[in-house]
Amino acid sequence: MQKGRFILATNQLDKQLLTDEDMLKEYKNQHKTEVSFRFIKGNTFEVSSVFLKKESRIQALMMVMTLCLMVYSLSEHLLRSALEKNQETIPNQLKKPTSKPTMAYVYRLFHGIQVWCVQWEDYVQQCVVNLKTVTRQIIGYFGDKAMEIYGLKKMS
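Below the sequence we write its predicted structure tokens.
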């Protein structure tokens, strides 16, 4: 077995603020950021279909995309943490149980869910349709407000 060597450099010279171990840990977690930027560069955002010339509009688009990425990352973290805490899983694309689903896959599970509005004279009833067991489970992990939005009762 061969061991390689590489150099990590930083401009933070205070060892109490950034130890060598912490710097190595941050370096090893760098792939998470790179995966996120791959997500932005991919076809998910369909950025290639947007043509902007003004710098201010490009900056605004990048801000919106960054916020979307933050919501994506936070929701993935919250879901994975809830699954781990409850020692539960959801089926992945291959129908095998996973406690670490990607939000891209989870968002696809929500395709087809719709809100139907039924009006009879002055009475309007809204109902969410096409919820499946797994989407109900996922919604439950996001708390009472999410359940209220989808018209679900709190599970005891």
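The mean pLDDT is 86.
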